[in-house]
Write a structure and sequence with these properties.
By secondary structure, this protein is mainly alpha-helical. The chain contains 9 helices and 3 strands, in the order H-E-H-H-H-E-H-E-H-H-H-H. Helix 5 links the parallel strand 2 and strand 3. The protein starts with a helix and ends with a helix.
Amino acid sequence: SSLISCWGEQSRRPVAWLSLDENDNDLRLFLSGFVAAVKTLFPIAVNDMSELIQAPNLPPTPVVTAILLNELERIAQDFAVVLDDVHLIQDKAVCELLSLMLRHPLRSMQLILLGRRDPLLPIASLRARGLTAEFRIRDLRFTVDEAAQLMRFALGLPIEKAITEALVRKSEG
C-alpha cells in the first residue's frame, strides 16, 4: 500500500483509492464504493451507474459490468483506480465483475489491485494474455546490500554488516 501510495503521489495520472473490507463482499456495496472513488476524480462521471445502484434489483453481473465499463470509457483523461485489500473479496458477483473488468481493460483506466494474497480472480489467464504486471513480496524485499545503502543514506553513516544482516533477517527484507 505504501509503495503504490508513493507511486500515486508521483504519477501524472490522477489516482482514486478504495480501501476494501469484508462489507464489500456485496456487489451493490462494492459498486457504491467504486463509483464514489471514481467520483472523487470525476464528479460528473458514472452517473448512470450511480442510479443503477439505487435500483431495487441489480441486473446480472455481466450487464452491470458492461454499463460500468461503458461509462468509465467516456472519461477522456487517463486515471488509475486502486483497490486495496482485494484479498478480502470472496463474493462471487464481485469477483465476476472484477474478472470481467480485467479481461476487458480500458484505454484510459489502470486498475491496480493490492492484497496480501492472490484474489479469487483468473490471475493465471490474465498473466498468459499479458494483462497483468505483478509485484510479489520477493520483489519488494531489500537485499543486505540494499538495506545497507538505505541505512547509510538515512543515518548518514555506515552500519556494520552483521547488524544490517540481522535487520534484514528480522524484518524479512
